[in-house]
Amino acid sequence: MKTPAGGRSRDGQAIDLSVLIPVYNEADNVEPLYDQLCAVLLGSRFRYELIFVDDGSTDGTRERLMRLQGRDPEHLKLVLLGRNCGQTAALSAALDLARGDLLAPIDGDLQNDPADIPRLIEELDRGFDVVSGWRKNRHDAFVTRKVPSWLANRLVARLSGVPLHDFGCTLKVYRRRVLEGVRLYGEMHRFIPIFAAWQGAKVAELVVNHRPRTAGRTKYGLGRTFNVVLDLILIRFLQRYAQRPLHFFGRFGLWSFALGILSFLAMLYFKFVFPWPALFWDPNQPVKSFVETPLPALTVMFFLAGGMSILMGIQAEVVMRTYYESQSKTTYLLSEIREGEPRASRDPSHMDQTTIMGDSA
Question: Is pTM beyond 0.85 here?
Answer without folding.
Answer: no
